[in-house]
Amino acid sequence: MLCKRIIPCMDIDGGRVVKGIKFQNLRDAGDPIQQALKYQDQGADELVLLDISATNEGREAMLPLVERISDNLMMPFMVGGGINSLRRVERLLERGADKVSVNTAAVWNPSLIDEIARVCGSQCCVLAIDARGNANGRWKVLTNGGRKATGIDALQWAREGAMRGAGEILLTSWDKDGTRSGFDIELIRAFSKTLQIPVIASGGAAGPDCFVKVFKEGHADAALAASIFHDGIFTVKAVKQELKNNGIEVRL
Questions:
Q1: Burial of 63: CB neighbours in 10 Å, binned 0-12, 13-18, 19+
Q2: 239: closest CA among 213, 217, 219?
Q3: pLDDT digits (tens, 9 = 90+) for 45-62
Q4: Rounded mean pLDDT of 215-239?
């Protein structure tokens, strides 16, 4: 059995870690380097950095910060935000990123996934999907940091992304993001049961119990959290110990 992964996520805006609720009302959550080192010491399996304003500002993700993170960390990390070309992907990988996540640009140009997977490998290509539920019990894709509705069925889009070569799906529940009300188990389970590639659960992490639930009931391969780690409510180590106590394989 593969070990389940615990992944802290750092949303970056203006060079600082920020956190909001449903992608709004952002507040400062610390220095990226200090936070990254803290999570490494706690035993995080990976780290995610998302430049949440890059797409809307039409600029490239934070290359100098990525280089600094790479110089200071030994654990793998993923970078997302403003990635709309293969050259941008290559620049991030050259500066030390292990993976990149594509979201908005891939929705409007799906062949970007094919290109990244072909040139850099599927292991480097993560398709990030921000999904919002609707009255029909389905989920629709949001773009531009959760600001724009597309009407695209999220599960169908995930299937297409996997077919085009994405190696993982980073699946964020817009309805749960920042609420600390638990992961959207129904959403995560639907994707995990349908797809043949790993699914990273994101949105709503509240504490160790909900991580147990998202792995046992949602069948996620990894789970991501932000505010509970940023605010020191729980540590990565505490979450992993609870998972171990419940028979879930993790790296301690």
A1: middle
A2: 213
A3: 999 998 877 666 666 668
A4: 95
Set out the domains of the chain in order of their start, with CATH numbers.
5-245 (3.20.20.70)
Alpha helices in the chain (DSSP H): 32-42, 54-57, 63-72, 86-94, 104-108, 111-120, 154-164, 185-194, 208-216, 227-230, 236-245
In contact, 214 and 236? CB cutoff 8 Å = no
In the structure encoding, which two tokens stand for residue 9, read together?
Answer: 């996520």
Cα torsion angle, 120, 122, 126, 131, sign:
positive
- Phi, psi (5° rounding) for residue 229? -85, -45
28 or 32, higher pLDDT: 32
Does the annotation mark 130 as catalytic?
yes
Annotated catalytic residue: which of 13, 45, 51, 130?
130
- Give the torsion sign (CA, 19, 21, 23, 25): negative
What's the confidence (pLDDT) of residue 1?
65
Bridging pattern class, strands 99-102 and 125-133? parallel
Of residues 154, 155, 207, 203, the one with CA closest to residue 183: 203
98 among known catalytic residues = no
Q: What are phi and psi of 26, to 5 degrees?
A: -70, 145
Cβ pair 206, 182 in contact under 8 A: yes
